[in-house]
C-alpha cells in the first residue's frame, strides 16, 4: 500500500449498467507435466511433490490470514543510516561495473522460463533488522509447544517446536541428571550441515544408545539424545490420512502407532502400525494383521503402546456389533446394536505377529469399569492397563499383567473431583498416570503397578494440559503445554509422590527462548514509513520519519490498544487523507475478531474494532486501502451453511467495510445480488484477500470457491463481483495480491495444477477491473513446484512483485518479477544478504514512495528468524 491515488475521480467502467464480467485468457497456459514422458524438459515429477511441509510453508507466507516478518542491515559488515548513503554505495558499485540500475525493464513473453541473471536488475541486498524493529521485553517470546517426553535411566528428552513468527523448528530439551539441569540438543543434517527450518518433533522414544523423534513430515535420530540428525521424511511410509499417536522404544527397535482416517471420515478409520530397527527405515503393518477374534468387531485405531522386554502391548478403540431381542407391544423384534469398546494386542516377536490381549471382557470390568481402554504402561516384569469407571464421578480402574494376557484388578484411581485419564508411561522405575481432577491436572505413581500414590498438584494453573509424561529415576516427569491466552511458553515439571512439584523455567535454558518479532506489512507516504506486524504475540507497529533509516516502536492510546489477550497480529497497513490504518486478526488464545487500528501521524494508535460494524461473529480482516473515496477494509466471514448437518464445515462470505475517515465504519453491501454472499447453494464461499484504491474507486481480489475472483466498487460501499475462471491446466486458483497504476490493475496469486503443483500466476485489467487477462509468471528453471508470490506493488510506472523459490522445502530464496504493463513479466533472482542463502528468505510486504521501493520480510534458519528490510531504487 503506497500513497493514495491523486487526481479527480474518474467514472467507473459501465457505471449504472449491469456488469458483464469477461476473462480473456492469454497464451501459453499452465500445462500439466507428464511425469512418465522422458522428453519433458522439466523432468519427472512426483504428483504429490508439493508435500505437506511445503503446503504449510506456503500457507504461512500467503494471507489466510497472512503471517510474515522482516529485517534490515544494508551490507553484512556495514551499517549506514539514511537512504542516500545506503543507496549510493551499491549504485556506485554497479555503475563502475557497467550495470544499469533499473527495476522496470522490457517484458518477455510471460511464459514460464529461466530467470534473468541476478545482476540484470541491480537489486541491492537486504539488511538484517532485528535491531531496528525492536519490541518491549516480555516473557512471552516466540510461541513454543512440547510433545512427548522419554527417559532412559537418568537421561530425559522432551521434544517440541518453536513456531516462531513464520517458520517452525524442532527443539530438543535434554537432561542427563534426572531433571536437575537442562540443555538444548543440537541438530544437523547427515553430512553435518545445518538442517532447514521446520521439521518439528512431536514424539520421542529412546534408550540403549538409540533415540528417535517423529514429527509432521520429519524423522530425527540420535545416538545419545543430545545430538540429533534429520533423516529423510520418506523413511516412514506414511499415507494420506495417517496420524501417529505414540512412539515407543522396543527391545528390537521402535514402534509407532496411530490411525488412518479414510477420506476424513472417522467411521472409516483403521489402525496403522510402523516398525523400525533403527529409526531410519520403517515397515507398515495393515489392519488385517491386527484382527480381534472373528465376529467381535472392527479396529478403529491404535492409541497406546508399551514395551517390556521382548513383549509389545498396543491398544485402541473397536466397534462391536451385537443383536438383541426387544418387545414392541405383543411382538418381539431383533435389532442390531453397534457400540464402541476397547481392545489390546500383544506381540512376542518384535511386532511381526499379534494376538488378542484384551477385549471388552478381558480383563474383566466387573469392578465397575467400562469396556473401553483409557491407557497403558509398562512396569518392570509386566504391564498396566487402565479402564474408565462408571458412575457419577469418573475414575480409572487399574489392571496388571506379567505377560499381557492374564490380567488382575489392582486399584481404582480417583479424586474428590473425579479423574479423567491423560498420558501414561512406565518403565523399570515404575508407572505414572496423569489425568484431570476436575479442571486441575494431577498424577498417580506406582513402583510396581499394584500400589499407587497421588502426587501433589504440578500445574501452575487449570489452563495447563499434559502433553507427555515419563518415569525417570523413581519420579514422574510431566510436560505441560500452557493453553492460557497470555503464556506462549511450555512448562516442564518434575514431581514425585510425597514431594513438592518443581517446575523448570524453560526461558532460562540457554538457546530455548527467543523474543518474537514479525514485520508483516509496510506503507509509505513521502518520507514517512509505517511497518506493522507483531511482537511477542501482541499487535505491533513501527514508524520511520527518515525513509527507513531509523525506526521507533509505536504506542497505543491507551496501552491496551496493543496489549491484547491471546495471540494477535497486524497484517496490513495503508495511508490516506486522515492518516494511517492497520488491520489484522487473532491467531490463537482468544476468540476470533478483527483487529483494526488507526493513527493520525503513525506513532500513536487507537482501536477502531470496537465499533458495531466489526461486532459480528467469525469476521476476518485481511488488508486495507485508502483513496479519495475514503478507506476500505476487506476480509471474509465464516457462516453456517444453511440446511447442512451440524458437523458440516462452515462456508465463507466476502466482507468489506468503508469509512470516510478513520472512524464511523460501515459494513459494505452488494451492488448486485450475491456479489459478497454468493448465490443460493454456494459451496466453499467467497473471500476478499487484498484491495487497492484507484481514481475510479476500489478493486478487491480473492477467491470464489475453487476459482479466483475480483470485485469492483466506485466508493467502497457497494460491490460488484467479477468472476475469473480457473486458469487452463489447473484445478483451483486464488488471488492474494493486487496493485494499481493509472487505469491498469494487476493481481497475483497461486493456482494448483492437475498434478498438485502450485504455480504463481498474474491477471491484469486495463479497464479498472471490469475485464481481466491471464498471464503466466516466469519461474526459475525447474523450480515451478516451489515458487509462490509473497508481495506486489506499483512502482516506477510499472509493477514489481516478490516471491520465494527453491528446490527443497526449507531452502527458499527471493525471486523478483517486474512488468511495465502487468501482462508480460521478467523474473530475476537477486543475490545478497536477506535475499539468498541457507534457510528461507522472503520479502512479504512492498511499498513505493517516489523513486524508492521498500520491502520487509524475514530470513529463517534452524537457529532463529529475523526481520529483514530491503530498499531498491526504481525508475
Descriptive notes:
The chain is an all-beta fold. The protein is 3% helix and 48% strand. It contains two helices and 61 strands. A five-stranded mixed beta sheet has the order 1-54-53-52-51, with no helix packed on it. A hairpin with a 2-residue loop joins strand 56 and strand 57. The model is unreliable at 1-120 (pLDDT under 50).
Outline the secondary-structure elements.
Layout: E1 22-24, H1 51-61, H2 83-96, E2 127-128, E3 144-152, E4 155-162, E5 169-175, E6 183-184, E7 186-188, E8 203-207, E9 210-215, E10 218-222, E11 227-231, E12 242-250, E13 253-260, E14 270-276, E15 283-285, E16 298-299, E17 304-308, E18 311-328, E19 331-347, E20 355-358, E21 375-379, E22 382-388, E23 396-401, E24 408-413, E25 420-427, E26 430-437, E27 440-446, E28 453-454, E29 464-472, E30 475-482, E31 491-495, E32 502-504, E33 517-525, E34 528-535, E35 538-544, E36 552-553, E37 555-556, E38 567-576, E39 579-588, E40 595-599, E41 604-607, E42 619-627, E43 630-639, E44 651-659, E45 666-667, E46 669-670, E47 686-694, E48 697-704, E49 707-713, E50 718-723, E51 730-741, E52 744-753, E53 758-765, E54 771-776, E55 788-795, E56 798-808, E57 811-819, E58 826-828, E59 840-849, E60 852-861, E61 864-873
Parallel strand pairs: 1-54, 7-11, 37-41, 46-50
Antiparallel strand pairs: 2-61, 3-4, 4-5, 5-6, 8-9, 9-10, 10-11, 12-13, 13-14, 14-15, 16-18, 17-18, 18-19, 19-20, 21-22, 22-23, 23-24, 25-26, 26-27, 27-28, 29-30, 30-31, 31-32, 33-34, 34-35, 35-36, 38-39, 39-40, 40-41, 42-43, 43-44, 44-45, 47-48, 48-49, 49-50, 51-52, 52-53, 53-54, 55-56, 56-57, ...
Amino acid at each position: 500500500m503506497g500513497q493514495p491515488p491523486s487526481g479527480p475521480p474518474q467514472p467507473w467502467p459501465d457505471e449504472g449498467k449491469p456488469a458483464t464480467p469477461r476473462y480473456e485468457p492469454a497464451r501459453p497456459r499452465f500445462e500439466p507435466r507428464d511425469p512418465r514422458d522422458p522428453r519433458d524438459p522439466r523432468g519427472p515429477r512426483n504428483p504429490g511433490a508439493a508435500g505437506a511441509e511445503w503446503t504449510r510453508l506456503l500457507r504461512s507466507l500467503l494471507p489466510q490470514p497472512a503471517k510474515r516478518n522482516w529485517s534490515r542491515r544494508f551490507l553484512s559488515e556495514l551499517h549506514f543510516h539514511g537512504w542516500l548513503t545506503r543507496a549510493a554505495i551499491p549504485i556506485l558499485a554497479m555503475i563502475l561495473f557497467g550495470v544499469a540500475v533499473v527495476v522496470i525493464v522490457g517484458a518477455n513473453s510471460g511464459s514460464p522460463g529461466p530467470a534473468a541473471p541476478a545482476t540484470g536488475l541491480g537489486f541491492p541486498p537486504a539488511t538484517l533488522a532485528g535491531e531496528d524493529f525492536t519490541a518491549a521485553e516480555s516473557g512471552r517470546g516466540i510461541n513454543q509447544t512440547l510433545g512427548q517426553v522419554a527417559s532412559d535411566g537418568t537421561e530425559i528428552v522432551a521434544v517440541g517446536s518453536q513456531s516462531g513468527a513464520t517458520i517452525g523448528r524442532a527443539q530438543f530439551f535434554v537432561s542427563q541428571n534426572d531433571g536437575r539441569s537442562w540443555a538444548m540438543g543440537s541438530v544437523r543434517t547427515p553430512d553435518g550441515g545445518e538442517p532447514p527450518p521446520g521439521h518439528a518433533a512431536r514424539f520421542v522414544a529412546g534408550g540403549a544408545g538409540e533415540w528417535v523423534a517423529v514429527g509432521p513430515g520429519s524423522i530425527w535420530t540420535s545416538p545419545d539424545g543430545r545430538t540429533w540428525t534429520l533423516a529423510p521424511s520418506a523413511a516412514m511410509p506414511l499415507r494420506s490420512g495417517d496420524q501417529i499417536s505414540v512412539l515407543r522404544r522396543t527391545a528390537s527397535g521402535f514402534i509407532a502407532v496411530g490411525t488412518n482416517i479414510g477420506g476424513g471420515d472417522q467411521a472409516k478409520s483403521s489402525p496403522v502400525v510402523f516398525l523400525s530397527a533403527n529409526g531410519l527405515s520403517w515397515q507398515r503393518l495393515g489392519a488385517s494383521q491386527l484382527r480381534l477374534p472373528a465376529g467381535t468387531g472392527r479396529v478403529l485405531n491404535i492409541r497406546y503402546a508399551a514395551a517390556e522386554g521382548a513383549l509389545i502391548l498396543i491398544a485402541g478403540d473397536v466397534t462391536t456389533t451385537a443383536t438383541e431381542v426387544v418387545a414392541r407391544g405383543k411382538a418381539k423384534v431383533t435389532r442390531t446394536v453397534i457400540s464402541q469398546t476397547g481392545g489390546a494386542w500383544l506381540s512376542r516377536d518384535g511386532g511381526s505377529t499379534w494376538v488378542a490381549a484384551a477385549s471388552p471382557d478381558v480383563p474383566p470390568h466387573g469392578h465397575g469399569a467400562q469396556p473401553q481402554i483409557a491407557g497403558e504402561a509398562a512396569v518392570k516384569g509386566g504391564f498396566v492397563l487402565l479402564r474408565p469407571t462408571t458412575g457419577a464421578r469418573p475414575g480409572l480402574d487399574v489392571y496388571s499383567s506379567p505377560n499381557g494376557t492374564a490380567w488382575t484388578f489392582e486399584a481404582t484411581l480417583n479424586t474428590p473431583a473425579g479423574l479423567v485419564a491423560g498420558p501414561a508411561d512406565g518403565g523399570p522405575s515404575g508407572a505414572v498416570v496423569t489425568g484431570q481432577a476436575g479442571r486441575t491436572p494431577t498424577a498417580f505413581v506406582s513402583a510396581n503397578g499394584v500400589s499407587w500414590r497421588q502426587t501433589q498438584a504440578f500445574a501452575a494453573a487449570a489452563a495447563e494440559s499434559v502433553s507427555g509424561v515419563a518415569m525417570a529415576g523413581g519420579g514422574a516427569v510431566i510436560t505441560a503445554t500452557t493453553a492460557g491466552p497470555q503464556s506462549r511458553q511450555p512448562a516442564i515439571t518434575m514431581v514425585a509422590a510425597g514431594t513438592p512439584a518443581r517446575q523448570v523455567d524453560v526461558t532460562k535454558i540457554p538457546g530455548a527462548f527467543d523474543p518474537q518479532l514479525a514485520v508483516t506489512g509496510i506503507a509509505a507516504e513521502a518520507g514517512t514509513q509505517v511497518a506493522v506486524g507483531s511482537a511477542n504475540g501482541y499487535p505491533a507497529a513501527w514508524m520511520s520519519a527518515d525513509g527507513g533509516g531509523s525506526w521507533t516502536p509505536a504506542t497505543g492510546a491507551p496501552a491496551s490498544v496493543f496489549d491484547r489477550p491471546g495471540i494477535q497480529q497486524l497484517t496490513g497497513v495503508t495511508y490516506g487523507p486522515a492518516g494511517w490504518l492497520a488491520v489484522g486478526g487473532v491467531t490463537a488464545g482468544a476468540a476470533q475478531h478483527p483487529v483494526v487500528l488507526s493513527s493520525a501521524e503513525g506513532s500513536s494508535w487507537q482501536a477502531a474494532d470496537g465499533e458495531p460494524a466489526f461486532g459480528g461473529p467469525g469476521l476476518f480482516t485481511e488488508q486495507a486501502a485508502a483513496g479519495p473515496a475514503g478507506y476500505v477494509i476487506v476480509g471474509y466471514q465464516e457462516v453456517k451453511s444453511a440446511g447442512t448437518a451440524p458437523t458440516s464445515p462452515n462456508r465463507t462470505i466476502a466482507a468489506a467495510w468503508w469509512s470516510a475517515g478513520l472512524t464511523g465504519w460501515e459494513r459494505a453491501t452488494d451492488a448486485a445480488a450475491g456479489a459478497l454472499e454468493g448465490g443460493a447453494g454456494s459451496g466453499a464461499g467467497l473471500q476478499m484477500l487484498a484491495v487497492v484504491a484507484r481514481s475510479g474507486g476500489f478493486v478487491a481480489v480473492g477467491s470464489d470457491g475453487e476459482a479466483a475472483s475480483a470485485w469492483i466498487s466506485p466508493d467502497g460501499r457497494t460491490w460488484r463481483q467479477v468472476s475469473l475462471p480457473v486458469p487452463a491446466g489447473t484445478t483451483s486458483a486464488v488471488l492474494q495480491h493486487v496493485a494499481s497504476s493509472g487505469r491498469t490493475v494487476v493481481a497475483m496469486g497461486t493456482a494448483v495444477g492437475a498434478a498438485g503443483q502450485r504455480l504463481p500466476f498474474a491477471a491484469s485489467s486495463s479497464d479498472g477491473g471490469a475485464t481481466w487477462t491471464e498471464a503466466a509468471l516466469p519461474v526459475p528453471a525447474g523450480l515451478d513446484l516451489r515458487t509462490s508470490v509473497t508481495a506486489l506493488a506499483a512502482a516506477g510506472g510499472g509493477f514489481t512483485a516478490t516471491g520465494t523459490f527453491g528446490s527443497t522445502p526449507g531452502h527458499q530464496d527471493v525471486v523478483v518479477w517486474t512488468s511495465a504493463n502487468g501482462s508480460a513479466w521478467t523474473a530475476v533472482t537477486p543475490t545478497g544478504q536477506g535475499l539468498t542463502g541457507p534457510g528461507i528468505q522472503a520479502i512479504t510486504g512492498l511499498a513505493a514512495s517516489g523513486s524508492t521501493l521498500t520491502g520487509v520480510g524475514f530470513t529463517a534458519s534452524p537457529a532463529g528468524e529475523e526481520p529483514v528490510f530491503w530498499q531498491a531504487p526504481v525508475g
